[in-house]
Amino acid sequence: MKITNVRARVFEWKGKTVPPQGNFCSNAMDLLYSPVETMQTFRFHGWTVVEVETDTGLVGYGNVALAPRIAKQIVDQYLAPLVLGQDPWDYEYLNQRMYRATHAWGRKGVGMAAISAVDIALWDLLGKSTGKPVFKLLGGRTKEKIPCYYSKLYRTDLDEMQREAETYLKQGFSAFKMRFGHGPAHLQQGVVENLKAVEAVREVIGYDTDLMLECYMGWNLEYTKRILPKLAKYQPRWLEEPVIADDIDGYAELNAMNIIPISGGEHEFSLYGFKQLLERKAVSVVQYDTNRVGGITMAHKINALCEAYSVPVVPHAGQMHNYHLTMSTLASPMSEYFPMFDVEVGNELFYYIFDGEPVAENGFVQLDDDKPGLGLTLKTEYLDQFDILE
Ligand SMILES: O=C(O)C(=O)C[C@@H](O)CO
Ligand SMILES: [Mg+2]
Q: Which residues form the Mandelate racemase/muconate lactonizing enzyme C-terminal domain (predicted)?
């Protein structure tokens, strides 16, 4: 099998969107005085879809969500020439080729995200060419089905958050992730607001469910140290990305406090970066996203690394490029699950672009043994609501 063409297209949503309500979600911009409304930097309304075509007629699909227009340029100008004419089965060689050729500028961030999209498309091809789902190529089914946690609960009105939690509890979810709306800029009043929100959600979901708390890098070390003991009584399973991704010392210090397990890795990009996080005991849960860390080839290696350190992997986002890895490794006990809603943050867009993304039933997602590759096709239903950049 030989690669004959690589096509990268940006899908930019132009349809109706739901404006973020209330304090919505803390994020890294919150610590900075800014005339820019911070939610503008937080919304992700575009996606790059990469199609790798072959001389067999098979086409593999990959995707990247970060900085989609730049990712497309990287695929077009730098990565496509490196894989054209090559055999997708040489995926390790091709991954190294892309990683090393772009290393001067690409080793963290959007460079790696673009590599990920091509790599994911290669694995989709491998599955399609063998008639097997990707998880089979990675080692097979380690779970009957994948437990997943409901991930939304942005910081809106507390009654609304409670209604949301109740609805999804009734649908059978037994694990939830909520977002904080306040950080250091909101002073002690914000601490109180944060605690009230966790209490409100626990009031509805009880204590026989898991609750995860998301900061999305909107706090700092001092603030987190102050609030951690106050949050402990709500028994969170983890506290996610309290500080910016580069502050590995901060993660290590917070995790060593042993009050609440600290999770991270959603904004880490390389195998070496994860080695550092693990060596430093900086996180108790690793949350890579396969469409950021160099694709399935690299995520598979990170799983092995985490297995050896006995640190669980719960990838960022659901989505097929992550589900296949979660299914095939014991290092990964469960998945994140973004429900399909009207377009708001943009996490939902995956459902609007692709057909085949599984829908959770009773808090589990299932992968089909008989669907080759990733099991995704392009959806036609919403095509007129995207601007598509060729
Ligand atoms: O789902 C997460 O872990 C994210 O960080 C997604 C982002 O949308 C913040 O809510
Ligand atoms: Mg997160």
A: 158-261
**Amino acid at the residue 91:** Y
- Answer yes or no: are the C-beta atoms of 314 and 287 closer than 8 Å: yes
| Burial of residue 311, with CB atoms counted within 10 A of its CB: 0-12 exposed, 13-18 middle, 19 or more buried | buried
Helix (H) or strand (E) holding 88: none
CATH class of 3-131: alpha beta
Contact 354, 323 (CB under 8 A): no
Other C-beta atoms lying within 10 Å of the C-beta of residue 9: 17
Give the ipTM of the model, two decimals please: 0.97
The CB of 319 under 6 Å from ligand 1? The reply is: no
Compute the distance from residue 113 Cα to the ligand 1 centre, in Å.
16
Q: Where in the chain is the domain with CATH 3.30.390.10?
A: 3-131
Indicate if ligand 1 lies below 6 Å from the C-beta of 316. yes
pTM exceeding 0.90: yes
Residues 162-217 have pLDDT tens digits of 999 999 999 999 999 999 999 999 999 999 999 999 999 999 999 999 999 999 99
Q: Distance (Å, rounded) from C-alpha 359 to C-alpha 351?
A: 10
Q: How far is the CA of 20 from the centre of ligand 1 (A)?
A: 14
Told to judge if 316 belongs to the known catalytic residues of this protein, a careful annotator would answer: yes
* Residue bearing the CA closest to ligand 1, atom 2: 316
The residues near 121 (Cβ < 8 Å, ≥ 6 apart) are 50, 51, 52, 60, 61, 62
Nearest residue (by CA) to ligand 1, atom 5, is 216
Residue-wise DSSP of 32-87: S--SS-GGGGT---EEEEEEEEETTS-EEEEEE-SSHHHHHHHIIIIIHHHHTT--
Q: Is the CB of 119 under 6 A from ligand 1?
A: no
Please pick, among 182, 267, 316, 324, the residue that the annotation labels catalytic.
316
Q: Which parts of 257-294 fold into alpha helices (H)?
A: 271-279
Q: 136-379 maps to which CATH number?
A: 3.20.20.120
Atom of ligand 1 lying closest to residue 42 CA: 8
